[in-house]
Amino acid sequence: MSLLYSNRNYRLLFSASAISNLGDGVSALAFPWLATLITRDPVLIGYVAFATRLPWLLFSLPAGVITDRGDRQRLMVMADLLRLLLTSGVIALITFLPDLPPDDRVNFYILALCGLAFLLGSAEVVRDNAAQTALPSVVAPGDLERANGQIWSIEQIMGSFIGPPLAGVLIAYAVPAPFALDAVTFAVAAWVVWLIVVPPRAMPAKRSMGAEVLEGFRWLMQHPKLMRLALMLGVSNMLAVMALTVLVLFSQEILGLSGVGHGFLLTAGAAGGVVGGIVCPGIAARLGAERSLQVVLCLFPVMFILIYVTSNPWLVALALFIEMFAALLWNVVTVSYRQRLIPDGLLGRVNSIYRFFGWGMMPLGALLAGWVVSVAEPQIGRELALRMPYAVASCIAIALAVYGLLRLRL
Fold this sequence. Notes:
The structure is a single chain. The two termini are 29 Å apart. This protein has helices at residues 2-6, 8-38, 42-58, 60-69, 72-95, 102-134, 144-173, 177-194, 209-221, 224-253, 259-287, 289-309, 313-341, 344-359, 362-380, 382-407. With 410 residues, the chain is mainly α. It is 86% helix and 0% strand. Residues 1-410 form the Major facilitator superfamily (MFS) profile domain. It is found in: Cell membrane.
């Protein structure tokens, strides 16, 4: 914990991440739960998740150029203030709902919710890329694993351990309440980031965005191991989003959980992230990067298989714990690897290209989840249809693990 005591800039960045991720954790439950209050159609609920993730596909590349060109601190502040305004828009939507016929009301609400989710996701792309790119400028290279582990631990504590159950309690009290808290967290996070004193850096000469993105692509193509990691992350994230998109219906209809119960279920994943953030730097140091990633790939299918075969909330909680622990081990290894390897002048762009592949496939997972359930339900019934995305994901995850064991070399 000495970094938190000795490094003021890191302490402020750490605090801002904690506060903004509390808001993210609240909205992670509140958004899909609000969608289920509007409709039970898995395809429409998938559209909301799709809209949330789509910006990672559309805006990762320009966000990288903006991050390398601009003031990363200012970008974080502006992104959080924009999220404050957009979350206020969600509150307005809930509070001043138009009186429409039932079918029109569903279509209007889902379309409006998708629009707000898309804009919030767009601001998140810029904010997260700027934050990850700024970290090496506030900590020494030898502290990156520890700093990343601590930040991801607090993000899991606030975003998944505290945020979702708190959202469940708030949404049971009043539907707009979790979004009001969300807005406050973004305002406070923006203020904390503004207090950071970032060392000045030389700004590159501005060129066309296409030329700058191409420069980042060329650098990444010259490092095929990093490109392989990006593509494997993309498949993994697609499967994770497929699982999480259906989980809100799975939780209600198969596990029989309320909003509060679903929130506590999500805390199991947070517990895996917290434990992972604490112990994964040590695991990575002991096993080495390559073997650590092989462990992750072997753990990843377990989550989907467990959820597919069970109706027990405790086993689902265990699955989420395993998934988040594995994800933290992957991140501790790969993000620190990128932050060391990529030159500072290219860090924003290459990070954004990496995320274009690694996160850009997430919206596809959201759409696949809704479509799989919708197509399967007439043939096999509602319950088995809600399990089918986990069956599909487990098969793909096993294939990915075999590929990684054979081809992944660092």
